[in-house]
Every structure is written in C-alpha cells, then in structure tokens.
Specification:
Helix content is 58%, strand content 13%. By secondary structure, it is an alpha+beta fold. It folds into two domains: 255 residues, CorA soluble domain-like (Beta Polymerase, domain 2), CATH 3.30.460.20; 63 residues, Magnesium transport protein CorA, transmembrane region (Methane Monooxygenase Hydroxylase, Chain G, domain 1), CATH 1.20.58.
Length: 326
Amino acid sequence: MLRGYYRGVDGTLTTVADTDGVRRALADPQGLLWLDLEAPSPEEASVLGDVFAFHPLTIEDCLASRFDPPKIDDYSRYLFLVAHGVEEYVRGRELEPAELDLYLGANYVVSCHLAPMAAVGRLLERCQRGGTVLDHDAGFLLHTLLDGLVDDMLPVVDELDETVDRLEEEVLADPQRSTLQEILLVRRNSMRLRRFTSAEREIANRLSRGEFPALVREEAHIYFRDVYDHLVRIEYLVESVRDLADGALNTYLSVVSNRLNEVMKVLTAAAAIFLPLALIPAVFGMNFANNTWPPWDEPWSFGLVVGAMVALGAVMAFFFRRRGWI
C-alpha cells in the first residue's frame, strides 16, 4: 500500500497516492513529503529506486522479511534508519517486534514496513484530519515517528513488570512447571527488548548531537535527545525486569529444592522407623531347634512380637518428632 501526504509552500496538505504525485512533491524543495509504504507490492516498491534513487542495499533491507538490527547509515543526501518497535504483549507468547525502515531527506521522509504499526497509523489519522504533523521540517517528522515507536514500548515493559510480580507470587504459593516456563519466557522477552533498545538509543544519540547538520537542524536536537532519554528509561526498566525474572527463577529453584528436601526427609524418617521393625520378625523368623523365644506355640507369642514392633515404632516416631526431624 502506497500512501502519503504533501505540504506545499502555502501550507496546503494534499494526498499523494501514485508515482506522479511523488515526483511533483519532490520537485518542490520548500515543501515536505511523507510517503508511507506498508507491505508494498513490487510496483509500489519501485518508487524507492526509480523516483528517489535510493541505494539498492537499503531497498533490499526494506523489502526483506528478515529482521535487520537497528542502525543509521549516512548516504550524504539522505539518511537510512532501521528501527524496531513492540506494540503488544500477549501472556505466554514471545514478543514480536516490528521493523520500521525510514529515509530522511531534505524535504521528505519515507517510511516502509511490512506489517501495520500503531505509531504510523496514528500519524496517518492526524494527517487525514488535517493535523499539524507536516507543519515543520523533515527532521521533526522523523522525530515524531521515532517518538511514537518508542512510546509504544513503555506499556509493554510495564506489562512485563506486572507479569514478573505475579509470577513471584505464584512461585511462593504453588510453583508449577508452567510457572517456570513463563519465567523463562519473560526473561527471553526482556533480553530481546534489551538488544534492540540499546541499538536504538545509539541512533537517537547520533541524531541529537549534531552529527548530520545537513539533514537534522540544530533546533531538532533537543527533540531527539528526548527520544534518547525515553530509550534510556526503557533500557533501565528492561534491565530491572530481567533482574526480577532472574530472582523469580532462583526463588522457584529454591522452593522446588526445599519441597524435595521435605519429601526426602519424610521418606528417610519412615525408612528409619520401619528398618528395626523389619529386623524383629527377621530374627524371630529364623529356625531354632529348642531355644526359640518367645515360644511360637504359645497363644500370646504373636501378640507380644507385634506389640513390641508397634511400641518400638511409636518410640522412634516420638523421638524424631521431638527433634523436629518430621
């Protein structure tokens, strides 16, 4: 899907929906064009090379189904950025980041993504309502897209934090194997977030320190610094979630180990009680000629042996109980 908006010198906002409209918008150096490509067809993607003359390597990154790591490349007359975002957290599933590829030129911003993205959708709706999205320069528009992408991560991190809190309560109450699997999943999700937020933090840092004066004006540096601060906060929260997940994992292992120790203690105590009880019938069950005691032909002999076994078991159980072993 190819869609875009163009703000002319007089401030009028028009819709761009084909290649000819893109060419006319680019011909105005004082205007501003935002072109968005969502899951573009080969014909729609051809505008990247035929009209904008972007480098083939960047076009390949835009159209590839694989996830490229976040980065920023300087091609002199334009910048190419790869950013990742996460918009939804579903319990019991791995996070699925979405990739947003961006081109920043002197009078245009081109965004390309293979799946719908909330940050892009919100800006498109603002443009449809005649909002002020394109009232500034291309650098400010780039900041708006990146800022929306980063802001969508915060609810996801908060939900991960709440999930860890709930898992800690489950571990202490009744740890199950499913609890362990969810702890490991939260840990993997936090590590995945950590990997691409740290790279995006470096992108925002480079945009905020005046490394690209031809395309990013000095007035826009403070806005990219704000994005950088948000990413630092997210990175800190993700580190905290990962530490909490590690703590929940250690707690789970400790609780399971303690439960196993309790079971083994009970079984050991039972074996210690029944071992001497098995010794008594073993001794008196041997074949003696004349001196067997108690005499098995007496009516009270069986009761005496059973009573002795019960008494010995009761004494040992009482002793173990007094020592706190069972």
